[in-house]
From TrEMBL:
<feature type="transmembrane region" description="Helical">
    <location>
        <begin position="27"/>
        <end position="52"/>
    </location>
</feature>
<keyword id="KW-1133">Transmembrane helix</keyword>
<dbReference type="InterPro" id="IPR051791">
    <property type="entry name" value="Pra-immunoreactive"/>
</dbReference>
<dbReference type="GO" id="GO:0005886">
    <property type="term" value="C:plasma membrane"/>
</dbReference>
<feature type="domain" description="RDD">
    <location>
        <begin position="23"/>
        <end position="194"/>
    </location>
</feature>
<dbReference type="InterPro" id="IPR010432">
    <property type="entry name" value="RDD"/>
</dbReference>
<dbReference type="Pfam" id="PF06271">
    <property type="entry name" value="RDD"/>
</dbReference>
<feature type="transmembrane region" description="Helical">
    <location>
        <begin position="72"/>
        <end position="92"/>
    </location>
</feature>
<keyword id="KW-1003">Cell membrane</keyword>
<keyword id="KW-0812">Transmembrane</keyword>
<feature type="transmembrane region" description="Helical">
    <location>
        <begin position="126"/>
        <end position="148"/>
    </location>
</feature>
<keyword id="KW-0472">Membrane</keyword>
<protein>
    <recommendedName>
        <fullName>RDD domain-containing protein</fullName>
    </recommendedName>
</protein>
<feature type="transmembrane region" description="Helical">
    <location>
        <begin position="160"/>
        <end position="182"/>
    </location>
</feature>
């Protein structure tokens, strides 16, 4: 591992400044957000499935494709788009307007997204980091990415799911390796948005919902 980093440290575009946030806190925050974000994203699909079938035991099989089979394309796409809006609410609106740079997972672990230049985090920064970086490019870290691929495939009638999944997997692996091997622990979405994670005090006023 040290030999790999020795080679990487000469890549000047990487940030080699030591992160103030431990890997454990990052992983814990991600797992909390992954779980809660998935619940939020899939809520419209599960509700529509339950109302249409009365089945609550097999909701792990729900997707826009299963909804398309029983309800038709318009309602399946409507549920998918509603799920994507809730995903954006969770990952963009909440850290922008509710808890200042923090998703619920990051708030729980007392860490926050911040700009590297010390300026106030903006909606544009969050859109670049959370939407372009996490949702669109990395594509394997959010349930919303899978839903987005499925919605595009269903709407177009073309199978984009496999192609986009493979490209997202490759980019995600590169991003994770960057976080594991470089002291700054910044991932691709952080470089795109020029952000990093910082520790915060648990009693900050702007953390109160």
């Amino acid at each position: 591992m040290n030999n790999v980093y020795f080679k990487l440290k000469f890549l000047t575009f990487l940030d080699h400044e030591e992160s103030e946030v431990s890997s454990g806190k990052r992983i814990a925050a991600y797992l909390i957000d992954w779980f809660l974000g998935a619940l939020m994203t899939l809520l419209p699909l599960c509700l529509m499935w339950t109302m249409a079938t009365g089945d609550t035991a097999n909701m792990n099989q729900v997707s826009v494709f299963t909804l398309n089979t029983i309800l038709g394309k318009p309602q399946a796409l409507l549920a998918g788009l509603a799920g994507l809006l809730l995903c954006l609410w969770y990952y963009v609106y909440v850290p922008w307007k509710v808890t200042s740079g923090q998703t619920p997972g990051k708030r729980t672990m007392n860490i926050a997204i911040a700009r590297k230049d010390g300026q106030q985090l903006t909606l544009k920064d969050l859109l670049i980091r959370q939407v372009v970086g996490l949702l669109l490019l990395e594509g394997m870290l959010l349930t919303g990415s899978t839903l987005l691929r499925d919605v595009i495939s269903l709407a177009s009638g073309l199978n984009f799911t496999g192609i986009l999944s493979m490209s997202g997997m490759i980019i995600t692996i590169v991003s994770v390796l960057m976080a594991l091997l470089v002291p700054s622990r910044r991932m691709l979405h952080d470089y795109l948005a020029k952000t990093h994670l910082v520790p915060v005090e648990s009693d900050r006023e702007d953390q109160q919902i």
